[in-house]
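Researcher: Please predict.
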Amino acid sequence: MRSILLSLLPFALLAAAPAMAQQSPVQKIYECAGLPIPRDRLACFDNAVAGLKQAEAKGDVSITTRQQARDAERQAFGLAAPPKPAPATTAREASAARPPAEESADTITVAVTAITKAPGGELVLTTDSGQVWRQSEPRDLGPLGKGPWKAEIRKAALGSFMLKLDGRTAIRVKRVK
C-alpha cells in the first residue's frame, strides 16, 4: 500500500503545482510542518527551502530585520510614500508586517551639516545622512551661527513637514532629496 502511495506522490505534486505556485515561498515551508510522515515532511522542507533560495536569488524575496526596516523608513522619511503592500493573509504574516505603534516615524531627529540659501531666499538644509530639505514658507530664523545643527522634523497636516532647528521656531519644509 505504501509503495502505491509513494508512486502516486509525484503525480499529486504535479497536480498541486499550479495551486502551490500562488503561495509565497514562506507559506510552503509552514505547510510542510503539518505533514505526519517524516520522510514526506523532509522532502517537502527540502523542496520548499530550494524554492525559497531560488526566489531570493531572483530577487523576488528578501529577508529584512526590523532594524533594517526602521533604518530604511528613517532614510525615506519625507519622500513620497510607495503604495502599501496588500494585507497579509495569515495571522503570522499580519503580525510580522505590522510594526508596533511606538515604531511609527512621525518625527525624526537629524544632524544638519550644511545650510545654504536658495535664489529665492529659502533655506536648504542637508543632513548627515544625505537628506536635503528646502524651506517652503517665508520665515526668517535669524543668525544661524556655525554648525553642526540639530533638527527635529515632524509630520504635519496635509502631508507637510515642520522642521525645528536647534529649538527655534518651526518652519515648514519639503524634502527634495
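Model: Residues 1-20, 97-103 have pLDDT under 50 and may be disordered.
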